[in-house]
Amino acid sequence: MKRSLFGKLVALLLTLLACPVLAAPSDVGVILMHGKWVMPNSMTMLARDLESRGFVVSNMEMPWSGRRLYDVDYQSALKEIEQQASKLRAGGAKRVIVAGQSMGANAAVAYASSGFELDGLVILSPGHFPEGGMGNRLRSSLDRAKSMVAANRGADSESFDDINQGKLRSIRMTAGTYVSYFDPEGLGAITRNIRKLSKAVPVFLAVGTSDPFYPESKAMFESAPPHPISRYAAFDSDHFSLPKLVSGELVKWLDAYAQ
Q1: CATH architecture of 20-129+184-258
Q2: Whole-prediction pTM value?
Q3: Beta strand segments in the chain, E
Q4: Beta-carbon neighbour count of residue 26 at 10 Å?
Q5: What is d(CA 112, CA 166) in angstroms, rounded to the nearest whole number?
Q6: Which residue, 39, 160, 189, 192, could crosslink 141 as a Cys pair with Cβ 3.0–4.6 Å?
Q7: How far apart are CA 74 and CA 114, in angstroms?
Q8: How many CB atoms lie within 10 A of CB 173?
């Protein structure tokens, strides 16, 4: 009996050694980024859902939060994302997914199109379109900021207009910072930047059917470099509620990605 049990244990061990080793969720780090004028707690429910599945999550406060209000330029914001990615990798993450909602989605695409290293991209309720109608409404502020930069006054602060889902707000920041976020040819031009990702990575794009951008969202998804596990998903949701509804489908996609 003892020899028989020993033989079974040896056979089981040999079988396990012969099986391919699959990546665990804990090998995948996810950077979450909130939307404009809010705080990371807007992503807390999604962060907890991902953590409960074993993914390592960084839910960071970004420069466009309600507290920081563009306290650094867009290039510096991307460096903050890179710092979080480095921390996740140093902590054992073998792959890093960069994810965001609204302005956070804009930043995720800006990061991916700027040559930084990442392994996947999650775009939730994409927002902030200086290359579109928002840019037309803010043209006077942008022209004023560009004039200040041209006059070597880019470090001077003034009040410039911003828009979040139709709501107009005046925010004080430096002229150079304003241009970095609101130039229709710059880092904020999400529909243009997604066409020039530094490499083809899996993309998960989710949008609510009540989101103003919903009609154009599928075309934006299809403009990204194709990848076999990229996925587009539409939900019965508005722009702001999507992070509370998307976790189930996002977790399924991440589970498949982790294999």
Answers
A1: 3-Layer(aba) Sandwich (3.40)
A2: 0.89
A3: 28-33, 56-60, 95-101, 120-124, 157-164, 167-174, 203-208, 231-235
A4: 15
A5: 27
A6: 160
A7: 11
A8: 21
Average pLDDT across the chain, whole number: 91
205 token code pair: 């794009």
C-alpha torsion angle, residues 216, 219, 224, 225 (rounded to 10) = 180
- Phi/psi at 72 (5° precision): -140, 165
Pairing relation of β-strands 167-174 and 157-164? antiparallel
CA-based nearest residue to 177, from 197, 162, 163: 162
Cα dihedral across residues 242, 247, 252, 256: positive or negative: positive
Maximum Cα interatomic distance, the chain, rounded to a whole number of Å: 89
CA 99 to CA 78: how far, in whole Å?
A: 13
In this structure, the number of other CB atoms found within 10 A of the CB of residue 98 comes to 31
Task: Say if residue 76's pLDDT is above 50.
Answer: yes
Backbone angles phi, psi at 28, to 5 degrees: -110, 120
Cα–Cα distance, 259 to 132 (Å, whole number):
38
- 207, 218 in Cβ contact below 8 A? no
Q: CB-based contacts of 185: which residues, under 8 Å, 6+ apart?
A: 131
Distance separating alpha carbons of residues 148 and 199, to the nearest angstrom? 35
State both tokens at 106.
Answer: 């804009």
> Six-digit token pair at 151?
């006059």
Domain range annotation of the chain: 20-129+184-258
The amino acid occupying position 156 is: D
Q: What are residue 10's phi and psi, to 5 degrees?
A: -65, -45
Q: Is 209 helix (H, G, I), strand (E, B) or coil?
A: coil
216 neighbors 246 (Cβ within 8 angstroms): no
pLDDT 10s digits, 90-143 = 999 999 999 999 999 999 999 999 999 999 999 999 999 999 999 999 999 999
